[in-house]
Write a structure and sequence with these properties.
three-stranded antiparallel β-sheet, about 30% strand, 3 helices, globular, alpha+beta
Length: about 170
């Protein structure tokens, strides 16, 4: 059996359900894990052998989700207000004066955001492909990508990821 495993280093998973921005996505969709591996590939040099390992992985059947502890609890989502990104100011000619004060974060309008969170504690999680054996070179390259994955979902969902057999 081939499997990818991870643990959330802060004990929380911050990921938004794509169908409801105020609800957490739990368990994480396998595509979220694949996207994290692709991001690690892009940030580590876009090597051809790693790309081939990702192509092998995307051709596998849907995996099973595994957890060492299924006690995951959705935390109450709180509405937070964050400054709107500066879309206009970066494209127009900069002139000093009162008009530019509106570009500072404290003067920009606020937009509500949600950061849906699931408390997972110290449990370990994984995606398993029963009956599937990865070739040695694929295992090696996916293992290198796993070592470069920093988060799943929101950047505050820091993880440690590795390849395992069970």
């Amino acid at each position: 059996m081939f499997a990818l495993a991870w643990e959330y280093l802060a004990g929380v998973a911050v990921a938004t359900d794509p169908t409801n921005r105020q609800q957490p996505e739990w368990p994480p969709h396998p595509d979220r894990v694949f996207q994290a591996l692709v991001a690690a590939w892009g940030e580590s040099g876009n090597s051809h052998p790693h790309a081939e390992a990702l192509r092998w992985l995307e051709q596998q059947p849907p995996p099973d989700f595994c957890a060492s502890d299924m006690e995951a609890v959705a935390r109450t989502t709180v509405k937070t207000y964050v400054p709107v990104n500066d879309l206009e100011g970066s494209s127009r000619m900069k002139q000093y004066g009162d008009a530019l004060l509106g570009l500072l974060p404290e003067f920009r309008p606020r937009k509500d955001r949600f950061f849906p969170t699931t408390v997972v504690g110290g449990a370990m999680f994984g995606l398993a492909w029963p009956g599937t054996e990865a070739p040695d070179d694929v295992r090696e390259h996916l293992g290198e990508l796993c070592a470069n994955v920093t988060h799943l979902g929101h950047s505050s969902s820091m993880v440690r990821m590795w390849i395992t057999n069970a």
